[in-house]
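Supplementary Text 2. Reproducibility record for the structural model of the 130-residue chain.

All settings were left at their defaults, and a single model was retained for analysis rather than an ensemble. We include the record here because the model underlies the residue-level annotations in Supplementary Table 4.
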Amino acid sequence: MNFPKDDTGQILQDMANAEFDFSGEYVIDFFALFDQEADADIVAKLFIARIENDEPFVKVESRKYDHGGNSSIAIELQVSKVMEVTYENITAFEKEFKKIAEKNKGYSDGWGVYMGDENEPEPEEEDSYT
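Retained model, structure tokens:
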């Protein structure tokens, strides 16, 4: 498989090199960071409404951003969506998510998908809407 030469394309190429199975749908986590919890909450509520409209979102969660150490005041918003793992799907939703986050004083901070490890059971995670 060949992917465009950008950050998303490189991640997908690394996944292909690790023999990721691209057939089927996965839960893909998208992240945004905000300085104020109130701004993150506005965006979270938009996606909670989309869940209630039966769109393929399965998780909306905000939490203190723990990658900045104890001095970090950032709030991380995670929005998880079920979709096929394709360059087109990911970049289209990233563009939409970035626009929504930036309108609300935040910025997009990447995406990820659980690739699994055949030696470890998949982590149990409760759906959470905050």
